[in-house]
Amino acid sequence: MARQRLLLGLVVALAIAAVMAIIQVPTRLGLDLRGGSQLTLQVQPTQEIPDITDRNMEAVRQVVEGRVNGLGVSESVVQILGNDQLLVQLPGISDPEQAERVLGGTAQLEFRPQKPGTEQQLTVENQVLQSELSELEALRAAQDNQDDGAASTPETIEQLSPAERQARLEALQQSVQDSEAAIANLFESTQLTGDKLEDAIARPNNAGTGWEVVIEFTSEGADLFADMTRRIAGTGRSVGIFLDNRLISAPSVDVEFAETGITGGGAVISGNFDAQAARELEIQLRGGALPLPVEVVENRTVGPSLGRDSIRSSLYAAVGGLILVLIFMVAYYRLPGLLADLALVVYALLTWAAFNLLGVTITLPGIAGFILSIGMAVDANVLIFERTREELRAGKTLYRSVESGFHRAFSSILDSNVTTLIACAALFWFGAGLVKGFALTLAIGVAISMFTAVTCSRSLLLFVLSWAQFRKPELFCPGLYQARS
Amino acid sequence: MKLSVIKQRTLWWTVSILITMVGIIAMGLSWQQFQAPLRPGLDFVGGTRLQLTRDCAQPQVCDTSLQTAQVREVLTPLGLEASSIQVVGDDRQSLSIRTKTLDVEQRAQLQDTLEEALGPFDPQSIQIDSVGPVIGQQLFASGLLALLVAFAGIVVYLSLRFQLDYAVFAIVALFHDVFITLSIFAILGLTLGVEVDSLFIVALLTIVGFSVNDTVVIYDRIRETIKLHPQMHIDEVVDDSVRQTLTRSINTTLTTVLTLISIVLFGGDTLKFFALALIVGFISGAYSSIFIASTLLALWREKSGHAIATPASDPLPDQPDSVV
């Protein structure tokens, strides 16, 4: 009996912990429930690059991520999918067209010389842009934190209402775009674009004090670059490196190159780079150097109010399903059915908590998987109680019937759950997106149901049996004595 | 009256074969119409589906309900008259339009034109599903692969836990369930225009997991009965085992189907047909476990001369649960 008490205590403790987890850790909702866009981008090989390598993909991912950040969506995700696809998730996006336009274009890297007489202006515009960017950063952080329930943001932002924050965010994005356009305007457009860049490599500099980025042009690019650098060497103006019309670096050229320009097709960009900044520039350059077109091959967008409707209807479905099953179990199995119902509620709590703690993103099929697992979770109990009834009919004592019901049903429970898990594993490995979500939620559900059906309902039953008033076989198997006589 | 699946096996097999035949015919007809055994949805053939709801918060926008003909008139100048148009929602204010795959510009143009003709739409309730043909093929290929791997995994597991012949007949029952579900949806596709999407593949895989689940419980009982009564004829073993597990089979299917009915009733459009597929599959799964997998096993053991398992030829390891 001491062991039952201990197990029962454990179950109660777990249930309480689960409730805490459900309250404390927010449930992560998929885009189909909260509204948003999910885009799949296909990276197309070209004549120059017929085979897309991992390195290419990483570079393209960086470029796309830069564009996504430009859209100003918080909690966006950019993932590499397979060999040549990118998955972009944009929660709560209000303008799917804009997103698709911005993400679908080819990265455009361009080297542009600064126009004469704009040195002052560049400094000023750059300062404006930097302050706008840092405020934007703070605002986004505030929004993310708001979702996470924690806060560590400047007070001025804290005081804004969500609507005001949203308005400020949009205004800032607009002025960032304006500033970027103003900066772009200070440079002359040229023919020296990314396809004329051969490679870019970040490396520690000779002095060993910092990092630098080596770039290398094609022969055609080398001539253009020499010409450009000759014109601005020693003037204090710089070579603007633009990616998607955004200035990513603006190195100046030393006066020693005023005669010939930087010839030979190679150059070194040095400055106050740390390893990370150098690496970032390298990837941006290489990404820009890749004239790899990306195409939006899949777009799934769900408006926020549609998502809310889905949540509501699936909540009804889950509660409805649970209630139907609870009623059935009590009506058919009486006392053990009631205890199984308790175990089922514990099961639902534990599973929900596990989703939150493991950070499982709940999608619509995921909810279906969860509801389904409620129906399944009962299966183990049905097996056990049917066994118990058989043993009772065979004339065994109540306690032994319950014990052997659990004992003998176990191999069936194990086998049947393992086969379901095998199907889940296949779904998880080969499925994508939503399918994965379903497989994961179903698998977690099955695993937890094994625990609750065997441990939780067993301890409950044996605990109840320690009271004489419950030790009546007819509470377990109605009509038992008629059947025997 | 006692149920004897062995005596009535011809009847049960006939039922299954009849349904299968109807399914084959339905799939044949589907093939003629859609070049596929089932009516393929957007996920598999690619295309763009746009769901828009008029913004009823604005005055006079929703005074009239939407008409399909009116929408088609709008689409014709854009060269999209072949699209399927549905007016949905209780108040007939939502549109679901399925076209060939549109790029951003084309989609924006379509939306603008619709807005001009029909009034403003609520951006909060927009739904866009645009799938390129490449993705469709990938989904199909990965789904098929997942199905095959699941089959293989289950055969290996059952061969290890039971014996190879058990595993083979469990797979036969599996094919039966998957095929029956396909048949029903081929019929639904022909009659009600129900399309299958990637969720349908998920449903099939779940059916695979569950159907075998049911079979395993009966097999487990057969194995146990053989061990307890090695001299019993296999027909009797199977009959007894099926009878003993029948209540459980029915009750488990019932509880699962109850939750699924809840999804059909309350779960919204996306999940409705997913749940329906599962209901068909699970009921078929219970049926095939009781009437197909077990009777085939009995027939096989009888024909191969293993109708009576003698203790010496029983290769099963001792299990603790055989001691009662």
TrEMBL record, chain A:
Subcellular location: Cell membrane
Record field: transmembrane: 315-335, 342-360, 366-385, 406-432, 438-465
Entry keyword set: Cell membrane, Coiled coil, Membrane, Protein transport, Translocation, Transmembrane, Transmembrane helix, Transport
One of the GO BP terms on file: cell division
Main localization, broad class: membrane
Protein export membrane protein SecD/SecF C-terminal domain: residues covered: 295-464
Protein family membership: Belongs to the SecD/SecF family. SecD subfamily.
Cellular component per GO, a single term: plasma membrane
Designated name of the protein: Protein translocase subunit SecD
SUPFAM superfamilies: Multidrug efflux transporter AcrB transmembrane domain
Recorded coiled-coil stretches: 119-189
Classification of source organism: Bacteria, Bacillati, Cyanobacteriota, Cyanophyceae, Nodosilineales
Domain SecDF P1 head subdomain: 184-291
From TrEMBL, chain B:
A UniProt-annotated Pfam family: SecD_SecF_C
Alphabetical keyword list: Cell inner membrane, Cell membrane, Membrane, Protein transport, Translocation, Transmembrane, Transmembrane helix, Transport
A GO term, aspect molecular function: protein-transporting ATPase activity
Cellular localization per UniProt: Cell membrane
GO biological process: intracellular protein transmembrane transport; protein targeting; protein transport by the Sec complex
Residue ranges of domain Protein export membrane protein SecD/SecF C-terminal in the record: 118-302
Membrane topology label: Multi-pass membrane protein
A Gene Ontology cellular-component term: plasma membrane
Protein name as catalogued: Protein-export membrane protein SecF
